[in-house]
Structures are given as structure tokens and as C-alpha cells.
Amino acid sequence: MSVVVPIHNEADILEENLGRMLDGLRKLERPFELVLCENGSVDDTMSRAAVMAARHQEIHLERLERADYGRALSHAIERASGDVVVIFNIEFWSVEFVDEAVRHLDEYDLVLGSKRMAGSNDQRPALRRIITWGFNSFLNWRFGFRGTDTHGLKAFRRRPLLEIARACVTEQWIFDTELVLRAERKELRILEVPVTVSEMRPPSYWAIVRRIPRTFYNIHKLASALRRLPR
Q1: How far apart, in whole angstroms, are the C-alpha atoms of residue 45 and residue 38?
Q2: Residue 38's CB: how many other CB atoms inside 10 A?
């Protein structure tokens, strides 16, 4: 099993979260690697990650010069060696999700952790919840997405999803969305399970605002790419 984690300017929370992540994954008693992909950090994230990789044999460290969450994910998926790949964020992860999702992968190709479906517990501020609802409602309307949440925890069989990841054309946070929509268009077997999520650090609403132009650009690229696929 390969757990992939993009990291960017995470120096303040990196060591504590990686330590807790490693402890939790070890308790599953399942062989795993932790593939970190540092991308474009301007703090000492890379040096701290290198120290952690030297201490723990499960950690494999990759680096991209440009800050890009989507490309970091794509790169880490390429480098992953496990038959099963799990996507974590450094501030949003769950060992319980891994335990449940891996059991479902005998029947499904892709398991999504949903913050919106019945049984989920989204403890983030109201604005973050509204943005998540609005974005996924847009995906339901514009692209016929049949689920409730494209962004967050995922577990999948690497073989069927690798080709899809390679075909993705979007960057940044829309890569997650494109991966799921392409998997749906390919009629892969997809399951959503509820998850609990809370803020591990104060949200940066200015960062959300700055993301808007890039998001619209990538949505346009996504629409152009999906237009050629069956709906």
C-alpha cells in the first residue's frame, strides 16, 4: 500500500502530523510506504521532510520545483509502488478511512471519503462547508457527477486509476476532481463513505480568494477535456 501526501509550506505541522500518521498506519499491520511530494515550498518543509525520511524507512521523499498540488499528486501516484494507493493531505487524513476503504477495494476500484453524505461530520467553519456544497452542486449540474464530494480522502487500485491520472490535464486542486470525474466516465466502480473532518489550523480565506481565477481556468480545461468522453 502506498499513501501519497503532497506537502507545501507545511513546516509548522509536518513533523507532528507525519509522526501521528506513521504510528496510525503501523497499527494497521499492513505493509506500506509513505510517498511525500514536496512542491515549491518557501519555508523549511523540504529539510524537515528529509530529516523524517532519514529516520523512517517507510518514507519516500519526492520534490517538484513548482508549487502545484495536482502535479504533486500525479507525480506521487506515478512513483507509488503499492497495488493500493491512498491520498492523504497533511492536515486531513484518517487511518480509520484506510482500514475501511481497503476492505471495500475487493469490490470497488475507487473509494471516496465524503464530507457531505449522510453520516459524515464536517466540523469546519460554515464558509468552508458552503464552498464545498456549492462546488459539488456545480459538478452535479455541469458534469453530471453522481456523488457528493470529489476532494479529499481517496483509496484506489493503482492499475485502473494510473492511466486516468496520466490523462488528467488540470492542475492545482481541480486535479482531484478530474480524477474522480474521469473514473466515473470510465464506469469504474466507485463507493463513497462518510468521514469526519475538522480544521487543524486556522483557514486562510485570502488563499481561497486567490485560488478563484486559477480554479475557473482549470474548470474550463476540465470541461474541454471531458467533452470528448462519454457522459
Answers
A1: 8
A2: 25
Predicted confidence at residue 97, as pLDDT, reads 94
Query: What grid cell was written down for 39?
Result: 512542491
> Yes or no: is domain 2-226 CATH 3.40.50.1000?
no
Start-to-end C-alpha separation, the chain: 31
H-only helix segments in the chain: 14-27, 45-55, 69-79, 95-104, 126-143, 158-167, 174-185, 205-226
Q: 197 or 175: which carries more pLDDT confidence? A: 175
The span from the CA of 186 to the CA of 15, in Å, is 38
* Under 8 Å between Cβ of 152 and 115: yes
pLDDT at 206: 53
- Strand pairing class (121-122; 196-197): parallel
- Break the chain into its structural domains and give their ranges: 2-226
pTM summary value = 0.90
* pLDDT at residue 199 tops 70: no
Round the average pLDDT of the chain to a whole number and report it.
Answer: 90
Question: C-alpha grid cell for residue 29?
Answer: 499491520
CA distance linking residue 192 with residue 112, whole number of Å? 5
8 Å CB contact between 80 and 33: yes
Residue 52 contacts by C-beta under 8 Å, 6 or more apart in sequence? 14, 15, 18, 59
Of 40, 46, 50, 37, the C-alpha closest to 4 is 37
Nearest to 37 by CA among 10, 12, 70, 73: 73
